[in-house]
Amino acid sequence: MGKQLLFSTSVELVKVPADAVVYITAQGNYSLVKTAGGDEYLLTKKLGDVESRLSSMTDNNRCSFVRIGKSLIINCNFISYIHTAQKKLVMSDSRTFRHELSASREALRLLKEVLEEEGTII
Fold first, then answer.
1. Which of 29, 62, 118, 122 has an alpha carbon within 20 to 30 A of 110's alpha carbon?
2. In angstroms, what CA-CA distances link 57 with 14, 15, 81, 114?
3. Class of 4-118 per CATH?
4. CA 115 → CA 26, 71, 99, 119, distances in Å?
5. What's the confidence (pLDDT) of residue 2?
6. In this predicted model, what pLDDT tens digit does every residue of 55-87 receive, in sequence order?
7. At 117, is the pLDDT very low, low, confident or very high (cuts 50, 70, 90)?
8. Are the beta carbons of 90 and 99 closer than 8 angstroms?
9. Whose CA is closest to 85, among 111, 59, 60, 105?
């Protein structure tokens, strides 16, 4: 079994496989987690706090979770499409879900650089 994340909402604790988390977005003082299975969890943590916890769990040798701009953390394993000019990022598993997200050109350019440094771009 892969890494598990334990999320705290206002009324429950939920254990979710890390590889099922597609992205996490800021919602004011809260963070909204979206999973590959379509579940959503509103966390009682700011996005910066979530980012700190995720970074302590990340394997430094590969892209897992990356902060994109001020309001978004993505799981690089679900990146399907990046279009910097249109400020568009598509997250998909190519079968069951597709999420189209907006991000700044600068944030997407930096994301492409991270992926290039890893050698994952041909």
1. 29
2. 17, 15, 25, 18
3. mainly beta
4. 23, 20, 20, 6
5. 76
6. 877 665 456 899 999 999 999 999 999 999 999
7. confident
8. yes
9. 105
Give, rounded to a whole angstrom, the gap between the first and last alpha carbons of the chain: 30
CA 67/CA 117 separation, integer angstroms: 16
Edge to edge, the sheet with strand 79-83 lists 79-83, 88-92, 98-102
Residue 66: name the closest of 99, 32, 21, 96 by CA: 21
The CA distances from residue 55 to 23, 64, 90, 102, 103, in Å, are 14, 9, 22, 23, 21
Predicted local distance difference test score (pLDDT) of residue 106: 95
pLDDT digits (tens, 9 = 90+) for 15-55: 999 999 999 999 999 999 999 999 999 999 999 999 998 88
Residues 6+ apart with CB under 8 A from 24: 31, 32, 33, 34, 43, 47, 50, 65, 72, 73
Q: Where are the domains of the chain?
A: 4-118
Token duo for residue 97: 């879900």
CA–CA dist 89, 66 (Å, integer): 13
